[in-house]
Structures are given as structure tokens and as C-alpha cells.
Specification:
Elements: H1 21-34, H2 52-58, H3 60-67, H4 73-98, H5 103-112, H6 133-145, H7 151-176, H8 183-193, H9 195-206, H10 219-239, H11 241-251, E1 253-255, E2 275-277
Antiparallel strand pairs: 1-2
Helix pairs in contact: 1-3, 1-4, 3-4, 4-6, 4-7, 5-7, 7-8, 7-9, 8-10, 9-10
């Protein structure tokens, strides 16, 4: 059963599909295979990231054909390859570093990636030899993207891409420390390092128009990007609520109920709507100074004098 029902959104412009969809599907699958993203393993014992069936089911060409309906065929191919790369990077990082909490290896891995996006290739040393599909794909994409854009755009897009890498490290650091960011920090971080600013920069490439450097950093443009980021993040969070809820139940995580504001006699507002792990059955309840259950064991049976 759905835990919520989406309202009908006002859509003044119907979705349009790029006529080059099928050609881009063929191209991007061939490109992903050439980069080693399909049926790939990091090493003989490493985790498999994607196979062809999974790649076909995700259908990034369809996504980009809707988001860029007017892009010519070669440009749609390039944009779709970028989206394939960024989602493969996310899954590769999850399987290789997040699950094992390999903080040192992740740091070394992420520090190498900016070298494959030289903003000014003439004044920087050549990038290192790619050692995995993420590095190989990034090097290929940058060589096809940067030559037609100005230095200002390359700086902005490179920064947006680096911020995506920082998000992965931020999340891994939280996981390694068993730290749960409060909602304000979570939203502020995703506004900057989520995919929306990166996507917005890529739109400029797709439509062959650049925002002038004197306008790009102004407050109105920042507000537009922030609004797009909030909408993109909110839509993503809503659409995966069912999957998250099911995963939480399977992994021993439960969602706390919203507590009252401190001025209303409730718990600290920073804890509202965050995630917490279920307490171990052997964990003894700690009473709060005000009496009753503390937050860490809320919902246990400690009011009956038993452990929660």
C-alpha cells in the first residue's frame, strides 16, 4: 500500500520526447560497454556493478530524451553518457567503498578524479592512466565536452562535478562515524552537492548557450539553481519513500516520528524526522531527566520496567 498519494501537479507544457531516442539507446549502451561499465568487476573478487539487463532497465537514454527533447543526436548522446557515468560512479562507490566503509581507499580514489577534468589542459600535467571504468569514462567525456566551452563554463561544471564527489565522501564519513545529520544540514548539503547544479550546468552545453560570467554568480541565478535543487531533491525523496521504507524495515532501521518544537515542551527540533537504529534487545533504557523514555529507546517497553 502506498504510504502517500501524490497530488496532481500543474503541468503547462506536456512532456516531449527526443526523436533520436533509439539511436542514443544504441550509442550509450555501446559506450558503457566500451568504458567497462557492463558486466564489470573491480577485480577478480570485486563486486559486480552493472550487467546488461540492469543497464537496459534503467534506460538513461529515455530519461535524457525527455529532459532534452530538442537536443540534436550527437549532443543527446553526450548528455546521456554523462548521466550514465554519474550514476555508475554512484553505484561503483557504493559497492566498492560505502558498504565496506573503506574511508582511506575512498579518499585516495576521489582525489584522483579531478585530474581527469583539467580546466586548462595546456597549463596542467597530463592526467594519469585510467585504472577503472569511472576514470576511463570521465576522461573520455571531458575530452568530448570541454573543447567547445569557455573557461568560465569549464570552471563551473568542474566545480559542480567535484561537489558530487564531496557528497559521496560526506555520506561515507557519516556512515563510518554512525553519525546522523540533522535535517537542516542534510538539505543544505544536498542543495550544493546534489545532482541539480550539475544538471543545470549541463543544460547550457545541451542548448549551446552559456550564462555570461557576470550573471552566473549573481543572487537571482543562485536562487534559481537552489529552487531547482530543492525541487529535484524533494521529488527524488518522495518517489523513493516506499523503497526506503521497505529497506529500513529489512535493515533494522526505523523512522522516528516528528517531535514537538522545544518551545512546546518537546524534544530538540534537530532530531525531528531523522533516522535512528533500533536499540539492541540487550540495551538498557536510560531515563531522561524529565522522566519517561529517552529518545534512544523510544517505543521500547521500559515503562514496564523491562529493557528496550
Amino acid at each position: 500500500m502506498q504510504p502517500f498519494q501524490l497530488p496532481e501537479f500543474y503541468l503547462p507544457w506536456p512532456a516531449r520526447l527526443n526523436p533520436d531516442l533509439e539511436a542514443t539507446r544504441e550509442h550509450t549502451k555501446a559506450w558503457a560497454g566500451e568504458m567497462g561499465m557492463l558486466d564489470s568487476e573491480q577485480d577478480a573478487l570485486g563486486p559486480k556493478i552493472w550487467d546488461q539487463a540492469r543497464f537496459d532497465a534503467m534506460d538513461y537514454a529515455l530519461l535524457c530524451s525527455y529532459t532534452h527533447p530538442d537536443a540534436p543526436g550527437p549532443e543527446l548522446d553526450l548528455v546521456t553518457d554523462w548521466y550514465v557515468w554519474v550514476f555508475f560512479f554512484d553505484d561503483h562507490f557504493l559497492e566498492t567503498y560505502k558498504r565496506s566503509r573503506a574511508l582511506a581507499g575512498a579518499k585516495e580514489y576521489l582525489e584522483r578524479l579531478p585530474a581527469f577534468m583539467p580546466v586548462d589542459p595546456t597549463s596542467t600535467p597530463p592526467p594519469p592512466q585510467p585504472t577503472n571504468p569511472v576514470e576511463l569514462g570521465l576522461a573520455d567525456l571531458w575530452s568530448r565536452t570541454a573543447p567547445t566551452k569557455s573557461l568560465d563554463w569549464r570552471l563551473r561544471f568542474s566545480e559542480s562535478t567535484k561537489n558530487l564527489l564531496l557528497e559521496s565522501m560526506w555520506e561515507l564519513s557519516n556512515i563510518s562515524q554512525d553519525r546522523i545529520p540533522n535535517p537542516i544540514e542534510y538539505i543544505e548539503t544536498h542543495r550544493k552537492v546534489g545532482g541539480a547544479p550539475w544538471s543545470a550546468d549541463l543544460v547550457e552545453h545541451a542548448v549551446f548557450v552559456e550564462i555570461p560570467p557576470e550573471i552566473a554568480p549573481t543572487r537571482p541565478m543562485r536562487v534559481l539553481k537552489d529552487s531547482f535543487a530543492h525541487r529535484d531533491w524533494g521529488s527524488s525523496e518522495s518517489s523513493r519513500a516506499c523503497r526506503t521504507r521497505a529497506a529500513a524495515e529489512e535493515s533494522g532501521i526505523t523512522r522516528t516520528k516528528p517531535y514537538a518544537h522545544p518551545t512546546e515542551g518537546g524534544t530538540d527540533e534537530r532530531r525531528r524526522g531523522t533516522w535512528r537504529r533500533r536499540p539492541s534487545p540487550s540495551r538498557r533504557c536510560r531515563r531522561s531527566p524529565r522522566g519517561g523514555c529517552c529518545v534512544c529507546c523510544r517505543g521500547c517497553r521500559c515503562r514496564e520496567g523491562r529493557t528496550g
